[in-house]
C-alpha cells in the first residue's frame, strides 16, 4: 500500500502544479504517470457524482445573495425602490430596507435541487467527454467533444431531473418569485400554492424551453473554455487549485455574458412581471420564448436583453470557480482514497 498523502489546497502548494508551460510536479503519493483521473471504472461514476453534488451545493449556497440581485436587476420595469446601479448597492439596500436574511429568501428550494442535479451533470459530462474524445481525437483532448459532452450532459440532466422538478414544482420559478422586490410570497409552500391556484400547473414550466435553449449554448461555451484554459494552465491535468479556479472563473464569465439575453427572457417567463406586462396591455400570462423575446425588445430595446449582465457575470465567475475547484478537489481526494485502499 502506498503511504497516505497530505492534501494541500493552498495556491501553489506542494500538491499543486505551477500554471503555464512546462511539466508540473508529480502529485505526491501517486506513481509516475498515474493521474488522479485514472480511478478504476467501477468507482469513477460514484466519485464524479459525489464530487459534483458537493460542488453544486457549495456553488449555489455561497453565491445565492448575488443570484437574488441578478433576478431583480433583470426586472424590465422595476419599482423605484428597487432600482440599483451596482451589485453592492443592491445587496446593501436589500439588507437595510428588507432585513438581513432577505437576499437568502428561496435558498432552501435551490439547495433541494443543486446536489442531485450537479451529481448527474458532472457524471454525464465526464463519461461523454471521454467517450467522444476517444472517437474524435484518440489520445488527445477534443474541444468539439467537450462542447458536445457539455450540451448532451445538459439535456440528460434536464430530462432526468424533470420528474424531480415536477415533484418540487420547478425550483427556478419559485426561487425567482421569492427573490423579486415586494414579493407577495413569504415561503416556498405559500408561493407554490398561490401560483398553482391562480396560474395552473403549467406556470412552473413556462421557461422550460428557454432554459434548455440557454443551458445548451451556455454549457457548451463553459466547458470548451474551461478545457481550453486547462490545456494552457495545466497541460498534464494534475490537481492544481490555481488552474481550476482561474479556468472556472473565466469560463463562467464568458458563458454568462454570451447567454444573458436568454437569461433575461427566462426571468421574465418565471416572474410574469405584472408592471411590465400591464404596460403592453398583455392579458393573461406570457408563455413561449418568442413572446418573451418580443416583450423584452418592446420594453427595453436591445439594451433590455443585457439587463443584469454585470450581476450575472459577477455571480457566475466565483460560482464556476467554486464549482470546479470543489469538484476537482473531491475528485482528487476520493480517487486518492480509492487508490490507497488498493493492495
TrEMBL record:
Pfam families listed in its UniProt record: Mito_carr
Subcellular location: Mitochondrion inner membrane
Family the entry assigns: Belongs to the mitochondrial carrier (TC 2.A.29) family.
Solcar repeats: from-to residues: 43-131, 141-232, 239-333
GO CC annotation: mitochondrial inner membrane
InterPro entries: MCP (IPR002067), MCP_dom_sf (IPR023395), MCP_transmembrane (IPR018108)
Purpose of the protein: Mitochondrial iron transporter that specifically mediates iron uptake in developing erythroid cells, thereby playing an essential role in heme biosynthesis.
Name this polypeptide is given: Mitoferrin-1
GO molecular function, one term: ferrous iron transmembrane transporter activity
Stored SUPFAM superfamilies: Mitochondrial carrier
Assigned keywords, A-Z: Ion transport, Iron, Iron transport, Membrane, Mitochondrion, Mitochondrion inner membrane, Repeat, Transmembrane, Transmembrane helix, Transport
Species in which this protein is naturally found: Elachura formosa (spotted wren-babbler)
Entries under PANTHER family matching the protein: MITOFERRIN-1, MITOFERRIN-1-RELATED
Region (Disordered): 1-33
Amino acid at each position: 500500500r502506498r503511504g497516505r498523502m497530505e492534501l494541500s489546497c493552498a495556491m501553489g502548494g506542494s500538491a499543486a502544479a505551477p500554471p503555464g508551460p512546462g511539466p508540473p510536479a508529480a502529485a505526491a503519493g501517486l506513481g509516475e504517470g498515474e493521474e488522479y483521473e485514472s480511478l478504476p471504472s467501477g468507482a469513477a461514476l460514484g466519485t464524479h457524482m459525489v464530487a459534483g453534488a458537493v460542488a453544486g451545493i457549495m456553488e449555489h449556497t455561497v453565491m445565492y445573495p448575488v443570484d437574488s440581485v441578478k433576478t431583480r436587476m433583470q426586472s424590465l420595469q422595476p419599482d423605484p425602490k428597487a432600482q440599483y446601479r451596482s451589485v453592492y448597492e443592491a445587496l446593501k439596500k436589500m439588507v437595510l430596507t428588507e432585513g438581513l436574511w432577505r437576499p437568502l429568501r428561496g435558498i432552501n428550494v435551490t439547495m433541494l435541487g443543486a446536489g442531485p442535479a450537479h451529481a448527474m451533470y458532472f457524471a454525464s459530462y465526464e463519461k461523454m467527454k471521454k467517450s467522444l474524445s476517444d472517437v474524435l481525437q484518440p489520445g488527445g483532448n477534443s474541444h468539439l467533444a467537450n462542447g458536445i459532452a457539455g450540451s448532451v450532459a445538459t439535456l440528460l440532466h434536464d430530462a432526468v431531473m424533470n420528474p424531480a422538478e415536477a415533484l418540487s414544482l420547478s425550483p427556478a420559478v419559485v426561487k425567482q418569485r421569492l427573490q423579486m422586490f415586494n414579493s407577495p410570497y413569504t415561503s416556498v409552500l405559500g408561493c407554490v400554492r398561490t401560483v398553482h391556484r391562480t396560474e395552473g400547473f403549467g406556470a412552473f414550466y413556462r421557461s422550460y424551453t428557454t432554459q434548455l435553449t440557454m443551458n445548451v449554448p451556455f454549457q457548451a461555451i463553459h466547458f470548451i473554455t474551461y478545457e481550453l484554459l486547462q490545456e494552457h494552465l495545466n497541460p498534464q491535468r494534475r490537481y492544481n487549485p490555481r488552474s481550476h479556479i482561474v479556468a472556472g472563473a473565466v469560463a463562467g464569465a464568458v458563458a454568462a455574458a454570451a447567454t444573458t439575453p436568454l437569461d433575461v427572457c427566462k426571468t421574465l417567463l418565471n416572474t410574469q412581471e405584472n408592471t411590465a406586462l400591464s404596460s403592453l396591455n398583455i392579458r393573461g400570462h406570457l408563455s413561449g420564448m418568442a413572446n418573451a423575446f418580443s416583450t423584452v425588445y418592446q420594453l427595453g430595446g436591445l439594451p433590455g436583453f443585457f439587463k443584469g449582465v454585470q450581476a450575472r457575470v459577477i455571480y457566475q465567475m466565483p460560482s464556476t470557480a467554486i464549482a470546479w475547484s470543489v469538484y476537482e478537489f473531491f475528485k482528487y481526494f476520493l480517487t486518492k482514497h480509492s487508490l490507497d485502499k488498493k493492495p
